[in-house]
Amino acid sequence: MYRRNSLLLVCLAFLAPVLACTTDDDCSLNGICKNNTTTTTTTTICHCDPGWTGPDCGRLDLAPATRWTGYNHTNYTDPAYYGVHGNSSWGGRIVQDRDDLKLFHLLVDQFSHGCGLGGWRPTSFIARAESRNGPQGPYEWVQNVTSSFRHNADVLWSPADGKYLLWAIGATVDDPKTCKSIPGTQSKAKLRFPNNISVSAAPSIRGPWAPFHVAVNGTNPAPWLLGSPDGKTSQIALAVEDFKIFTAPRWSGAFTRVGEDVAWNTTDYSPSWTEDPFLWRDKRGNWHALAHWMIDIVEKDGAKYPRVGAHMFSRQLEGGWAFKVQEAFSSTVEFTDGAAETFNRRERAKIFFGEDMTPLYLVSGVQAKGAKSSFTLVQPIGERWREYEKNLGF
Ligand SMILES: *[C@@H]1O[C@H](CO)[C@@H](O)[C@H](O)[C@H]1NC(C)=O
Ligand SMILES: *[C@@H]1O[C@H](CO)[C@@H](O)[C@H](O)[C@H]1NC(C)=O
Ligand SMILES: *[C@@H]1O[C@H](CO)[C@@H](O)[C@H](O)[C@H]1NC(C)=O
Ligand SMILES: *[C@@H]1O[C@H](CO)[C@@H](O)[C@H](O)[C@H]1NC(C)=O
Ligand SMILES: *[C@@H]1O[C@H](CO)[C@@H](O)[C@H](O)[C@H]1NC(C)=O
Ligand SMILES: *[C@@H]1O[C@H](CO)[C@@H](O)[C@H](O)[C@H]1NC(C)=O
Ligand SMILES: *[C@@H]1O[C@H](CO)[C@@H](O)[C@H](O)[C@H]1NC(C)=O
Ligand SMILES: *[C@@H]1O[C@H](CO)[C@@H](O)[C@H](O)[C@H]1NC(C)=O
Ligand SMILES: *[C@@H]1O[C@H](CO)[C@@H](O)[C@H](O)[C@H]1NC(C)=O
Asked: How high is the pLDDT of residue 182?
């Protein structure tokens, strides 16, 4: 069954440059299917929204990144650290300050004591960093938001609640004494270091944060406000691992599963195996997600690169999700100095959007080939970010 699909995809990919679309779904809901006005015939083609590219608008239109932006403190040293990986980190969410529009915050998953990505459980905690250099950074550490073990952080402003909502996995544990990782397969470890999703809230991005409480016994939180953009309702949508979708009347309420299992095979080692969804609703009201696609682990004997990004889309939150098993972005990053680097890992993709929901920046956790340290990369998308930065005076 799958084989047939891949064959079909190969054919589609081959035909793609001349393939006409029928509906906006053929444009990944990232564009409009309409007549090619430069020709007198009646072929229809995808007109992609800013930030998306490709014949089916299924690929992020990434622009070159600038070295030493984002949150790269892998060269930091502290004599008290057990490890040599500096302040390694693994992705985060950019938040524009609500009062000081030229100030950007990054809520980031950081590893303590100089430990690298391998020691993520239990050393991960959530930190807040700031940039006065614009949304690309560089961001500097300003505050610990949590202690260990908290990971997979995401944060949203809920206008209806007048609060920032902070989602993460983990539990509060004693400060780790080594960088040694705790395997997830040990049931005792699972109880002490659960990957369950918890939520906290604060009136300001600087805190104080309410105690976390478990929202869903699952992992990989991808929250989005379900309410109207005018902020009249507090309803929350939460996608988790394997694309299970939950909703709750408000952040502190009970989450219930909505919809059915998605149509694609979510089983580990299947070609449509993904993790860590990132969910959003676009300007037309359609739903989208990016996720870490693990195809190279399946097809290239455990390799984690370069095909790392998947895009899913749906007209409704509860069902009808489509996943064209193809690359939405890769682990190869072009830099403004003209060089390109293919990272060993690139995960935890999150988008920072402009007011009209145009994607402006992609934030991801990256690890160079041969490295054990990791950092948080911010890469501009398309062209609109230039205008966004210029309007802010950067
Ligand atoms: C494309 O143009 C033809 C002829 O003008 C028209 O019949 C058709 O509805 C158009 N299709 C779309 C999707 O705009
Ligand atoms: C639109 O039509 C023109 C003229 O036939 C053609 O050159 C161009 O490639 C078409 N655009 C796309 C994206 O197919
Ligand atoms: C990140 O930091 C390391 C030093 O720890 C450096 O080698 C690397 O070039 C930096 N990468 C980027 C993209 O800033
Ligand atoms: C890390 O590298 C950056 C960029 O080269 C440099 O500005 C900074 O001083 C370095 N920090 C340490 C602790 O070596
Ligand atoms: C590294 O992280 C620690 C918090 O654990 C912080 O005190 C320190 O300022 C950070 N340094 C840099 C360069 O990010
Ligand atoms: C930040 O939290 C980490 C993890 O709990 C801890 O190791 C570090 O000492 C803290 N740093 C500061 C400055 O509070
Ligand atoms: C998580 O599982 C525990 C133990 O089975 C249960 O007591 C708790 O109610 C569950 N929490 C949620 C939010 O489902
Ligand atoms: C985490 O979820 C598991 C079920 O998946 C449950 O057994 C456990 O009690 C939960 N832990 C906490 C702290 O809620
Ligand atoms: C899903 O993928 C797994 C792993 O490749 C495979 O064993 C299983 O047969 C697949 N299931 C379906 C329904 O295709």
From this structure: 83
Residue nearest to ligand 4 atom 4, measured at CA: 68
Q: What is the DSSP letter of 243?
A: G
Task: Specify the pLDDT at position 185.
Answer: 64
pTM across the whole model: 0.92
What is the rounded distance in angstroms from the CA atom of residue 14 to the CA atom of residue 179?
47
- Given a contact cutoff of 8 angstroms between Cβ atoms, the answer to whether 13 and 326 are in contact is yes
Q: State the ligand closest to the CA atom of 73.
A: 5
Q: Is 40 in the pocket of ligand 2 (CB under 6 A)?
A: no
State in Å: Cα 305 to ligand 5 middle: 29
> Domain segments of the chain: what residues?
24-392
Beta-sheet strand order (sheet of 104-111): 89-96, 104-111, 124-131, 140-144
Ligand 5 centroid–CA 204 distance in Å is 21
Q: Which residues of the chain have pLDDT under 50?
A: 1-18
Residue 47: Cβ-neighbour burial (10 angstroms; 0-12, 13-18, 19+): middle
Ligand number nearest to the C-alpha of 3: 9
Q: Is the CB of 339 under 6 A from ligand 7?
A: no
CATH code: domain 24-392 is 2.115.10.20
Among 82, 125, 126, 172, the mutation site with the greatest number of ligand 6 atoms within 8 A of its Cβ is 125
Whether ligand 4 lies within 6 angstroms of the CB of 76 is answered as: yes
DSSP bridge pairs for 124: 111
State phi, psi for 357 to the nearest 5 degrees. Answer: 70, 20
pLDDT tens per residue, range 310-331 = 999 999 999 999 999 999 999 9
Residues 230/234/235/238 CA torsion (nearest 10 deg): 100
Tokens of 128: 């807040």
Q: Are 166 and 202 in contact (CB under 8 A)?
A: yes
Which of 66, 68, 342 should be mutated for ligand 3, with most atoms under 8 A from CB? 68
Structure tokens at 107: 């809520």
